[in-house]
Amino acid sequence: MSRQAFEAAAKAAVEVLGLSRSKDLAGLLARGRSRERVLVELAAPGVSGVVDPLYDAMEAHTVPPTEAAAYIRGYVAAVRQTREAVRVRTVWSGPSTPGVPARATAQALIEVIDGARDELLAMTYAARPYPALTHALTRAVERGVRTHVVVETLAGARGLLSGREPAHAFASVPGVRLWHWARDPARHRNSRQHAKLAVADRRVLFLGSANLTESAAHRNIEAGVMVNGGEAPRRAAEHIVELQRTGVLRPLAG
Q1: Are strands 197-200 and 204-208 parallel, antiparallel or unpaired?
Q2: Alpha-carbon torsion 122, 128, 133, 134, what sign?
Q3: What is the domain class of 87-251 according to CATH?
Q4: Which of 80, 165, 76, 91 is nearest to 129 (CA)?
Q5: Edge-to-edge strands, sheet with 204-208
Q6: Are 227 and 242 in contact (CB under 8 A)?
Q7: Which residues contact 250 (CB under 8 A, 6 or more apart)?
Q8: Which of 99, 229, 237, 242 has the fewest CB atoms within 10 Å, measured from its CB?
Q9: Where is the PLD phosphodiesterase domain (predicted)?
């Protein structure tokens, strides 16, 4: 068995166990714990499926437990650094220009939604039924993502929005939780809920001028940024959650 087989087994273990439990695995290896002891210590569904191949590879290639522990710790550190690295890309709707690559708004928005695994928070001013968007949100809810969308209301827009309530755009998505800004009319008479963003799992943030409408995603000239990693996605999500907790944002009845 090649050294590559050991590295593949270690990678598979980290992918299944996650970063925190992989550090636990490295600690057990560093202390020379047996295969049986590790399986007991890390008891969970799927653990034996990665621990057994790892120990088989260590034995076949004569990899000492201390060396295996060091390799796993290094791999965990590399994965964490990659996840925390900040990448910012521009996002545009409307006409494209030759020689200047830019992410399309529709593509970026669906990418954020489809990438969510635990939490998805979105905010929009206007909203209209848009099949690509509602299908992506439905898939997110079906895979167990806690999905919250903050919308403006016709009353809050005070005549600047017309037609059906923006919340109607999400009526076909069972399980999505809708919120609105419960502002005091006396203090915030001319204010609007004008934020447009989506943030997935506090690690990917799409922020721009585009509402959650098909025209904004495809036809208008809209500009925004996609931020992967760093503090911006986490801070944006924390701010929305705190606005919910304090009652500034409230569930939208009906």
Answers
A1: antiparallel
A2: positive
A3: alpha beta
A4: 165
A5: 103-104, 87-93, 222-228, 204-208, 197-200, 119-124, 146-151, 177-181, 249-251
A6: no
A7: 179, 180, 182, 244
A8: 99
A9: 189-216
Q: Which two structure tokens, joined as six digits, stand for 166? A: 């923006």
Residue reference for tokens 């650094």: 81
Q: Is 148 exposed, middle or buried (0-12, 13-18, 19+ CB in 10 A)?
A: buried
Quote the longest CA-to-CA distance of the chain. Answer: 75
The length of the chain is 254
What number of other Cβ atoms are within 10 A of residue 124's Cβ?
25
Q: What are the sequence ranges of the domains in the chain?
A: 3-84, 87-251
Give the residues across from 190 on adjacent strands: none
- Map tokens 């593949």 to a residue: 8
Q: Rounded CA gap, 50 and 48, in Å? A: 5
Backbone angles phi, psi at 35, to 5 degrees: -55, -45
For the entire predicted model, the pTM comes to 0.68
User: pLDDT for 47-104, tens place per residue?
Assistant: 999 999 999 999 999 999 999 999 999 999 998 887 777 889 999 998 888 776 677 8
Rg (CA), the chain: 23
Tokens of 95: 């006409």
- The residues facing 199 across adjacent strands are 121, 205
Mean pLDDT, all residues of the chain = 91
Cβ burial of 185 (10 Å; 0-12, 13-18, 19+) is exposed
